[in-house]
Fold this protein.
Amino acid sequence: PNSPFGADIMTGVEASGMTDYRNGNRTVTLRNSKRDWEVQARLVVAADGVESRVGRWAGLQTHASPHDMETSAQVTVSGVDVDPHRFSLYYTSEFAPEGYSWVFPKRNRTANVGLGISGDCTSSKRPTGYLDDFLGRYYPGAAVVSRTIGGIPCTGGLDKTVADGVMVAGDAAHMANPITGGGIVNALIAGKCAGETAADTFHNCESKTVERNLIRYSKRCEDRFGKMNRRCYRIKEAILNFKDADFNAIAAEIIKLPVSKRTPIRVLSAA
Ligand SMILES: Cc1cc2nc3c(=O)[nH]c(=O)nc-3n(C[C@H](O)[C@H](O)[C@H](O)COP(=O)(O)OP(=O)(O)OC[C@H]3O[C@@H](n4cnc5c(N)ncnc54)[C@H](O)[C@@H]3O)c2cc1C
């Protein structure tokens, strides 16, 4: 093992295939630039991101429809005047139809500026086009340091996140918050839940890694964020119908609240 906790960490390695569950194992084919090889695994955690192939190899439906795929573009810009203690969200169909734009300040006059829009809204203009317009309007002199683009599945969660010998985690299991598209924290929590479930299962040497024994993983995720994500999905579907005037009216209500009372629940109540 090359980590203090007994794990072998391999970089530059792709999982290129996985067999059905046989004799309590999955056989995973790995490859790097030089060779292919196989490993036997009692348990595989599919944390391979959007449109998870590993999940699909296990027979799970990991595809998201364009409607639920938040297509996002972000740049890190330098030389911008941003308040380092404030992050800004812009809800307007001009720059982010069925989504929102954000400005997250970083150190030394740099910021992450990005947006996510529903895949339904990308036919006339791509997210990068909307982002260029946004930058042109608000940060015309900014120097772009780096760019990130990608899709975030915002379905509220896969119906099924386990199969024999497999647990699916993070974007692979559509665990991002459907309203914000934020998926980092839930992906980390899911990783922890997967580790705990694996430890429970292996602790009992007789216990097989069959699907019914892994349901505990789904339950753990459900309790930590799954129920909330499904509620947020229903709210997201309602928000999609809002016009800019509705957002302005909501903002006017929120601004009346003292800062200390502007909690997510109150903001959503205003909506
Ligand atoms: C532009 C943009 C901005 C975002 N901003 C935020 C934000 O501010 N806050 C937030 O919380 N979330 C944000 N998100 C969402 C967030 O990035 C994801 O929810 C999060 O990264 C999910 O983590 P993950 O580990 O599940 O998947 P990923 O981060 O996608 O990681 C999956 C990894 O698996 C690897 N992989 C895939 N297939 C294989 C294979 N077959 N073999 C080996 N490796 C494989 C990939 O290379 C990748 O490294 C943003 C997303 C985008 C696109």
Notes: The radius of gyration is 21 Å. The chain has three domains: 46-64+157-239, 66-153, 243-271.
